[in-house]
């Protein structure tokens, strides 16, 4: 018997074509090459799948006909999460950023000097993210080289697509959790060299924590490393008022917080640069992001939880800045992109009320389903520079996908029978959970799923 080399899915296929176009394909046929995990064909309006496949030898493919309450969605892309912080997600949520970092974050992150701690915690967090449908994640780890390598190893074992950052901190940090400038740069180089050969699913990302904890020498050195190895750069920007004031006082030569990163070469050292939060920014700063093709990660749960503020994402979208969503675990307490979508929806509602009631702008538009799905998938892909690889189901892209089944045994969603496909999608987006995800695929490999029988 010939080995099956193709997986074929027949049924409802939903994906974003752009910020304003959500395509719902009702009788879609999607063919995945099992060896490469790449989408070989996507066909629309297929009334008979066997007919559509007649050019193929039937022994070479496995056909999965999806039921009316099942559909495929592109995997979720979390553009900003802190892997070590998962262990205390939900604790200390009454504090604001700088106090929260000192009280909760730095003591726990410093414990990742132990690779045992890293192995135990990172296995949990990566598994949890995959179960929740996060097929790609951009991670912050800690300052510790060995623990960062452990995170890379675990991600590879579990099969997630990921950007992984060794965090850099050489000033304004507690004495138990700080690096010497040159050691920080050397460890970053070692981490990049360790991780690059592990490709193509795992990519190192240069990760200065934020300007407060990075000297000018360190930031310039990190820019040089990103440019030498052609790797992406991620950090935090304009999250909280106290943070912004302190940051600007440390770098008085720069025009504003955004200017500090630009002045240290971080916006031009890499093709792919993205900033988490960007809650409080003036027009000049947004223009600087746009000019340098720098994207943002919108972390709405975190911005509420740490009382940082409510980011007006619409403003960035209208300025043409790339936007994706981030959980920011554990500034955000939820390790789920479904939560990131819902928090973004609420943040957008708050902005709508502010525009309507305070700014006399009643035409402000809330983020709708089409935009929310885009931000959680294609938007994130663009922020990470992966728009040619993932984000939707175009032919030639990797099959990173969620097989949603609203009828699974422990489904949190009730389907009544009257729903059209948009309403089924909305039931999933607003009330679904990991118990709605029968199968989660990364590059064609099933990496998680609540279905009792793997596909
Ligand atoms: N700014 C600097 N470090 C952090 C962090 O760990 N979390 C958040 N939310 N903001 C930061
Ligand atoms: Fe963060």
Automatic annotation (TrEMBL):
PANTHER family: GUANINE DEAMINASE. GO terms for molecular function: guanine deaminase activity; zinc ion binding. Its cofactor is Zn(2+). Residues 71-447 form the Amidohydrolase-related domain. Pathway: Purine metabolism; guanine degradation; xanthine from guanine: step 1/1. GO terms for biological process: guanine catabolic process. InterPro entries: Amidohydro-rel, Guanine_deaminase, Metal-dep_hydrolase_composite, Metal_Hydrolase, Metallo-dep_hydrolases. Catalyzes the hydrolytic deamination of guanine, producing xanthine and ammonia. It is an enzyme of class 3 (hydrolase). Pfam families: Amidohydro_1. The keyword Hydrolase applies. This is Guanine deaminase. Keywords: Hydrolase, Metal-binding, Zinc. It catalyses: guanine + H2O + H(+) = xanthine + NH4(+). GO terms for cellular component: cytosol.
């Amino acid at each position: 018997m010939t080995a099956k080399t193709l997986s074929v899915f027949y049924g409802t296929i939903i994906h974003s074509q752009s910020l304003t176009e959500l395509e719902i394909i009702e009788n879609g046929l999607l063919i995945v090459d099992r060896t490469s995990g790449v989408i070989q064909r996507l066909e629309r309006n297929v009334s008979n799948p066997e007919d559509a496949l007649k050019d193929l030898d039937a022994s070479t493919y496995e056909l999965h006909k999806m039921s009316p309450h099942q559909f495929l969605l592109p995997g979720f892309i979390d553009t900003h999460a802190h892997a070590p912080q998962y262990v205390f997600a939900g604790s200390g949520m009454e504090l604001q950023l700088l106090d929260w970092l000192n009280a909760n974050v730095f003591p726990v992150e410093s414990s990742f000097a132990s690779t045992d701690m890293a192995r135990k915690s990172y296995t949990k967090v990566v598994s949890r993210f995959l179960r929740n449908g996060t097929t790609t994640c951009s991670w912050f780890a800690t300052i510790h080289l060995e623990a960062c390598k452990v995170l890379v190893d675990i991600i590879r074992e579990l099969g997630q697509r990921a950007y992984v950052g060794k965090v850099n901190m050489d000033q304004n940090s507690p004495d138990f959790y700080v690096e010497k400038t040159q050691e920080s740069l050397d460890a970053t180089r070692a981490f990049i060299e360790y991780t690059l050969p592990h490709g193509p699913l795992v990519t190192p990302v240069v990760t200065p924590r934020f300007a407060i904890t990075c000297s000018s020498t360190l930031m310039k050195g990190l820019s040089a490393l990103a440019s030498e190895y052609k790797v992406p750069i991620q950090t935090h920007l304009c999250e909280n008022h106290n943070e912004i004031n302190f940051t600007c006082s440390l770098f008085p030569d720069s025009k504003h917080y955004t200017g500090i990163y630009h002045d240290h070469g971080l916006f031009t050292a890499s093709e792919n640069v993205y900033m988490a939060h960007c809650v409080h920014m003036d027009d000049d700063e947004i223009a600087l992001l746009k000019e340098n093709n720098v994207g943002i990660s919108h972390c709405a749960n975190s911005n509420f939880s740490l009382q940082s503020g409510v980011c007006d994402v619409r403003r960035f979208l209208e300025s043409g800045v790339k936007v994706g969503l981030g959980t920011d675990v554990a500034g955000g307490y939820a390790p789920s992109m479904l939560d990131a979508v819902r928090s973004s929806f609420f943040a957008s509602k708050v902005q709508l009320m502010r525009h309507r009631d305070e700014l006399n702008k009643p035409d402000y538009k809330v983020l709708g389903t089409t935009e929310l799905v885009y931000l959680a998938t294609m938007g994130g892909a663009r922020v990470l520079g992966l728009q040619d690889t993932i984000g939707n189901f175009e032919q030639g892209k990797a099959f990173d996908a969620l097989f949603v089944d609203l009828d699974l045994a422990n489904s949190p969603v009730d389907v009544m029978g009257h729903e059209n496909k948009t309403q089924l999608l909305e039931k999933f987006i607003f009330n679904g959970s990991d118990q709605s995800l029968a199968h989660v695929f990364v590059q064609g490999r099933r990496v998680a799923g609540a279905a009792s029988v793997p596909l």
